[in-house]
Design brief:
With 254 residues, the chain is of the alpha/beta class. The protein folds into two domains: 2-119, Rossmann fold, CATH 3.40.50.2300; 134-253, OB fold (Dihydrolipoamide Acetyltransferase, E2P), CATH 2.40.50.1020. Helices cover 24% and strands 32% of the residues. It has helices spanning 11-21, 36-43, 85-90, 103-119, 190-196, 242-253, and strands at residues 2-7, 27-33, 50-53, 74-79, 95-98, 137-139, 145-149, 156-160, 164-170, 173-178, 184-186, 202-206, 209-212, 216-223, 226-231, 238-240. The strands form four sheets. A five-stranded parallel β-sheet has the order 2-1-3-4-5. The chain has a five-stranded antiparallel β-sheet with strand order 11-10-9-13-12, with helices on both faces. The longest helix has 17 residues, at 103-119.
Length: 254
């Protein structure tokens, strides 16, 4: 059984998510909260397996609750705003759901939760967001590769452009996801990446996202507002919103 706390200032949103979660026998809702303070009081002495957390709430943002969530708990952000996904994953999110939540997409989240909780894999959280000391640099670009300096001066790593599946903007940095490797936070702008990455293989689908078109294995529609993109050789899938999906389809058709 996976115990869950739902945090959202909109009663209708809590009711809808509760109804969807109740259709999964594995989930037990042990509490609801309507703001960060309410959630903090609930979490005193309690440790749910997962917190489904809205971001934009009156008074304090959902991100301000992260430091009060027990380290063993998973976080799933549930929001109407697709532009906060990078902040959410940087804060240690297991998943990021767009409202209105679709049951089929929620099923993927439940599967991820079940896998993570069964494996006992620890959660890596960064309560303060991307810090300068956490970031590396990209340098020594060639026609085929880029060399990353590791954070803290721990060395260098050369990655082929063909292994990069997507690049995302993270505040003043970029997050680089490559095949079957951990993501890297790099001091390089999206404009710099767009100028360097091979134009024949990569496309910019939004202001904050570049994907390798040649590496896309499949796209799976989740809801009116969300599509999952799967890449050859990569275990991570990429959730994108409606506008990015439309742009990606245009690029793939050319």
């Amino acid at each position: 059984m996976i115990t869950a706390l739902l945090v959202d200032d909109e009663p209708k949103a809590i009711d809808r998510l509760s109804s969807l979660l109740e259709s999964f026998s594995l989930i037990e809702i042990i509490g609801t909260a309507h703001d960060v303070g309410d959630a903090e009081r609930f979490l005193t002495g309690r440790s749910p397996d997962v917190v489904f957390l809205d971001i934009n709430m009156p008074g304090r943002l959902g991100f301000e609750l992260v430091s009060s969530i027990p380290p063993s708990a998973r976080i799933v952000f549930v929001t109407a705003h697709e532009d906060r996904a990078l902040d959410a994953f940087r804060a240690g999110a297991t998943d990021y759901l767009l409202k209105p939540v679709d049951r089929d997409r929620l099923a993927i989240t439940i599967e991820r939760l079940e896998t993570q909780l069964a494996s006992g894999r620890p959660v890596a959280m960064d309560h303060g967001g991307a810090a300068d000391e956490d970031a590396g640099d990209a340098s020594n670009d060639t026609a085929d590769t880029v060399t990353f300096s590791l954070a803290g001066g721990r060395g260098f790593e050369t990655v082929a452009y063909s292994d990069i599946v997507w690049v995302e903007a993270v505040r003043n940095y970029t997050r680089v996801q490559s095949r079957d490797r951990r993501p890297r936070i790099i001091r390089r702008t999206m404009a710099e990446w767009e100028a360097i990455l091979p134009a024949a293989a990569f496309g910019r689908v939004s202001r904050s996202l570049i994907v390798q078109l040649a590496a896309i294995r499949s796209m799976q529609w989740q809801s009116r507002d969300q599509t999952l993109v799967f890449f050859v050789g990569a275990t991570e899938s990429l959730p994108i919103g409606r506008a990015a999906t439309s742009r990606l389809k245009e690029l793939l058709a050319t």
